[in-house]
Amino acid sequence: MTLISFVVPAFRVQGYLRECLDSILGQPETDLEVIAVDDCSPDASGEIIDEYAARDQRVRSVRLPENVGLGPARNVGLDRAVGEYVWFLDGDDWLAPECLPEVAERLRATRPDVLLVDHVRTHWNDTATHSAMAEVFPETPGTATFRLRDRPETMRLLHTAWNRLVRREFLVDLGLRFAPGWYEDVSFSYPVLMAAQRIGVLDRVCVNYRQRRAGAITRTRGDRHFEVFPQWHRVFHLMDDWGSTADDLRPAVFERMIWHYLTVLGNGQRIAPELRPAFFAQITADYARWLPTEGYPVPDGVEGIKHRLVAAGRWRTFSALRAASRARDAARRRARTARRRVGPAARRSARLTRDGLLREYYRAELRRPVDPTLAVYAAYWYRGYSCNPAAIYEVARRLAPGVRGVWIVRRDRVDAVPAGAEYVVAGTPAYYRVLARARWLINNVNFPDFVRKRPEQVHVQTHHGTPVKVMGLDQQRYPIGAGRMDFAGLLRRVDRWDYSVSANSFSTQMWDRAYPAAYTTLEVGYPRNDRLVTADPDEVRRLRAEFGLRPDEQVVLYAPTHREHLPGYRPPFDPDRLVDALGDSGRLLMRSHYFHDRDRRHRRPVDRERVRDVSGHQRVEDLYLVADVLVTDYSSAMFDYAVLDRPIVLYAPDWEAYRLARGVYFDVTAEPPGAVATTFAELLDLFRTDAVRSEAADSARERFRGRFCGLDDGRAAERVVRRVFLGERAEPSSNC
Fold this sequence. Notes:
Blueprint: E1 4-10, H1 17-25, E2 32-38, H2 45-55, E3 59-63, H3 70-80, E4 85-88, E5 94-95, H4 100-110, E6 114-123, E7 128-130, H5 133-136, E8 164-167, H6 168-174, H7 186-195, E9 199-211, H8 228-242, H9 250-266, H10 276-290, H11 301-312, H12 315-340, H13 344-351, H14 354-366, E10 371-378, H15 387-399, E11 404-409, E12 422-425, H16 429-437, E13 438-443, E14 458-461, H17 479-482, H18 487-494, E15 499-502, H19 505-514, E16 520-523, H20 530-534, H21 537-546, E17 554-558, H22 575-582, E18 586-590, H23 597-600, E19 611-613, H24 620-626, E20 629-632, H25 637-641, E21 648-651, H26 655-661, E22 675-677, H27 680-688, H28 695-708, H29 716-724
Parallel strand pairs: 1-2, 1-4, 2-3, 6-9, 10-11, 10-13, 11-12, 13-14, 14-15, 15-16, 17-18, 17-20, 18-19, 20-21, 21-22
Antiparallel strand pairs: 4-8, 5-9, 6-7, 6-8
Helix pairs in contact: 7-8, 9-10, 14-16, 15-29, 22-27
C-alpha cells in the first residue's frame, strides 16, 4: 500500500502550483501518490497538472467539469486516494525540503490516526512567521500519541487541513467529509482531533503556508465570511450526535469558536465596516446558543474583555474599544515616521530645486481633469520608440483614431521617434503634464515612483519578454541578483497596473507570483511579435538590402542578455573565430543588451567586413527578420525569434552559476529552443557541422514553439487595443 496520498486541489494557483508539486515529487521519500484536482480553474492550473501527470506516474490528474469549491474538491481527491495516510496540501503552499522521510518514519513507527506537523507562514516579502507550536507544546510530546481530551491545548494549533496527515481508513470509518463553502477546514479539523484515539505531533516545519498578497480569501472582503458560522455549527451538531462522549471537550471547543469569530471580525481585509455590526450580532447569538452549561476558560486581559462584550451583545462598546486600539497604533506609527523625517530646513531647500518645482507642477496638474483622448506611451525607461508599446501605438492609430498618442523619451533619444509621432522629453513640464492628465499610460516597464494613479486613469503594463530569470518578488530568494531592489516600492508600482499583457500561459503563471496584485491579465501574445508573423518575403529582402546583406549569405545574430549580478561580465565570444566557422558566406550581427546603451558610446564598435555591431539599431524586430540563426543565452529574444521558426542556438557558458546567483524559472538547457552549447568550442562545432539545423535541434524548437508561441498570430496588438481602448471583451472561455 502507498504510504501517503497527497490531495492537491487547484483553483487560480497557476503561479504557485509548480512549486507545490515539485516540493512533493522532489522529496527523498517516494512512497507517495499525488491526486491533483483541477477545480475547473479558469487559469492554466489544469494544464500544469496534466503536464506533471504525463511525466510522473505518481501524479493523477482529475479535471472537474464545474467549480465545486475547495472542500468538495478535496473530497473528490479523497475518494480516489489509496494511501494509508492522506495529506491535503493546498496548491499555493509547498513542502519544506527533505521533510518527508522524517514524516514517513514517524507514521511507520507510531501509526497515529492523526499526525500534526509544524509550519511557517511565508509572506510575500520573503519573511516567515513561526506557528504556535512552541507555545502550545513548550516541551515536545516526542513520539508519544494521545487523545485530545488528554491534551486539549492541541486545539490551539492552526485548524487547517494541510498541517495534519490523517489515516485514511480512520477517516472513512468516521464518515467525515469537507463541507462546501469558505472556512471548510473548521468542520473537518476539529472533529478529526476529537474522534482520534492516537494523535501524534512532529515538531518539524513541513509546510510553507503562503501568505498571498492578492487572491486569497483571507484578503478578500465580502459577506462570504459569514460562512464561518455554519461551519462551526456543524462542529457542535456533530458533538450533539456523539452525545456525552464529547461533553468534556465542549468548553475548549467553544473557546476556540469565539476566538475564531473575533479573529475574522478583527481583520479589516475580510469584514467591511458596514457588515461588522451584523457579524458581531451573529457572534453574540452563537455565544448564547452554544455556551456550555459548566462555562469555559475565558481568556485574560483585553481578549477576556472582548468575550464579555460579546456575551452582553455590546457592539458599540466593542467597536469603540477597537477604534481606540487602532488610533493608539496609528499614533505610534506616526511618531516613528516623524523621527525619521528630514528637518524642515532641508525640506524647504528641496522644494526650491528644479525637480521640486516640477513635482509641484505635477501635483497641480493632477487637480485638472483627465484628458479622455490622451494615451501616453513609454518603453525601456524612456529609451525611445520600441517594443510592445510601439506595436500597440501603431494599431491604436488605425483602430482608435480618436485617441491621441504621445511618447515619452529621453532627450538623447529624440531622434529615435519616427516622423509624425508626437512626443515629450522626460523631465520637462510637458512630461509631468501628460503623466498627470492622460487617460491611458502604456509602458513595458514601470513608471517612476512619483506617478500617482488617478481613478480615471488606466495603466497598461506590457512587459518586455517571456521570463527565464526570476522577476519581481521571486528575486527576494536570490539577493545577489536582486541587488538593492526596493520590493515594497515595486509592489506600490504594481498596484497601479490595470492590465498586464502576457505572451503565453507560462508568462501569466510567472507574473501571477512575481507581481501579485489585482490587475487583469491580457494573455494575448506579444504585440511586438505581430510584425514577425505578418512580414512577407519582400520586406525581409528589403531589410537585408538596407543592412547590406546578400541573399546568399548566412546571417547569425548574437544577442546575449546582461548579468545584473556581474556588471562587467561578457560571455567568452570571439567574433572572428565564429565567422570563420560560418564559412565564406557567413555574416555576424552583434547586439548587446539595452542596459549597456550608455557604455556603447565609449566603446569602439565592432564593425568589420563580416562582423557588425547593431546594438544601436532601434527596432530589434528588423534584426530578427534579417537573421537566419539566433545565438543567445538567457535572453527573452529566444521566445520572440522562435515565432519565425528559424534555428536558435542556446549558448550558455555560465549556466550553473547564473541559475544559482540570478535564479531561473525553468531549465532552459533541458528545454531549449534548439541546439545547446556550453563552451565556445562547442558553439563553433555546432556551426562547422551544421548541427544548428539537426533533427534534434528542429524537434527541440518545435516543442519550444508549442509551449511559448501559440498566441503569436499577428493580432496581439489588436486584441490589446480592442480591450483597452475600445472596451471590447473576448468571448468567455468554455473550459467550465
